[in-house]
Request: fold
Amino acid sequence: MTRDSPLVALSESAILSAWEQGTGAAAVERPLILLRHAGRVVSLDGAASWTVGQRDGPVATGTAPCPSCGVPVEISFPLAAIRTDHGDAGSRMELVLDDGRRICFRLPTTADLRQASECRSAEDGARMLAAGCLLEGRSADDAPLADSVVDALGSAMAEHDPQSDVSLEARCPACEAELTVNFDVADYVWRRVAMAGRGLMIDVHQLALAYGWSEAEILAIPAGRRHRYLELV
Ligand SMILES: [Zn+2]
Reply:
């Protein structure tokens, strides 16, 4: 198991703690929990007012299986490349609907996403998000917002905040196949944390059984030496 690059910012005890808190949390809360553990964000409210792209920025690198041969392909991309045009939570965007109507909206922040995630269905959530972010151009027969407006706003938001869903291209080193990966940064990082957390827990369990050390003592052992102890168990 590798516990490398994307999580360098998290200590092993932070990984365990983030994993524990994130497991019971809604998906939209997890990036905030990770950011708190990475020490980048002290205040939850501060993080919650970022747009989604800004929130996900600092921890994105990854691997994906090649679709034709299954070999894990390392996809490395300079963060600067996808950080150039993340949305700005404060700015107003314009959109012209199919019927010619012009509307103004802002990008959703994590606080908006959290609220939307409490809706009973994804459709209700999308509607709440659209209604909350629509600043201007609502028409009298728009209560509740028409599906077409909700859809148009959803696409426009994704377009203006591209970092929340990044599309990456790479070539498989084994079979040369081209792959395009749609990369949900927050989900990816969470899965890495969960995997690392599970692995750490197994390590702690085995060493505690064998040597009687505490969790804190085991996590304090440098990873390389700990793996050599594990080989002896
Ligand atoms: Zn391949």
